[in-house]
Structures are given as C-alpha cells and as structure tokens.
Design a protein that fits this description.
The chain is of the alpha+beta class. It folds into two domains: 3-74, Arc Repressor Mutant, subunit A (Orthogonal Bundle); 87-114. Helix content is 68%, strand content 12%. The chain is built from six helices and three strands, in the order ααβααββαα. A three-stranded antiparallel β-sheet has the order 1-3-2. A hairpin with a 2-residue loop joins strand 2 (60-65) and strand 3 (68-73).
Length: 115
C-alpha cells in the first residue's frame, strides 16, 4: 500500500461519524445514501461528503443505480494495514487477547446489571 493511500485511510478513519457510517454500510450491504443519512442529524450533502472521503480511501464502494447510489463496505484496505504491522504469531495472540478482553467486559457488565 502506498503511503498516500495509507494517509487517506487513516484520515478517513479518524472521524467518528465516518466510522459510524462505515459500520452502517457494513451492516447494510447495498444500502443507499438516504439509508445512511437517516442515522445522522446533518444534511444529506454532509453525509455524501463523508461518504466521498470513505470512498476515496477505498473503504466504500459505490455504484450508481438510476438516481440512487448503492454502497458496499470494502475491508481490503484495513486488511492491508493489518498485514503490514502484524505477523501470523502476533495476529493469533492479538485475537486471543481481544477475545479475553470481551469476555472480561461482558462479565463486568453482567455484574453491574445484577447490582
């Protein structure tokens, strides 16, 4: 991955609203811009600008279908970043630690709910 592409990727992911939009597109493959905009209290134009940044970074693939624009999540750039800084060994242990973290957080929230 070229340094410029990596910069675009990190800049796109630096924005909380864009990360949320990316989650929506991931969870609703083929959704349109209006479906994404419903989740935000900003103009449709603002949502389209954020989506353009995500598309420029390669995180969103869009396809024009009549007047609508369909959106899909593209995990490839994130995978490339992951592969650049991890080895097979570190990925294994990072996955195990993440699973452990989620388990501990779940138990902690269960204890809080019981109180």
């Amino acid at each position: 991955m070229k340094p410029e592409s990596m910069d675009k990727l990190f800049q796109a992911l630096a924005s909380a609203p864009r990360r949320r939009m990316l989650d929506i597109v991931r969870d609703e493959p083929g959704c349109n811009v209006a479906a994404v905009a419903r989740h935000f209290d900003v103009s449709r134009i603002a949502v389209m600008k954020h989506l353009a940044v995500l598309e420029s970074a390669g995180l969103v693939i869009s396809e024009k279908e009549g007047r609508a624009r369909r959106l899909w999540f593209n995990a490839a750039p994130i995978q490339q970043i992951h592969e650049r800084w991890t080895t097979e060994y570190s990925a294994h242990w990072a996955g195990r630690l993440t699973a452990f973290k989620h388990m501990v957080e779940k138990k902690a929230s269960t204890k809080e709910d019981a109180s």
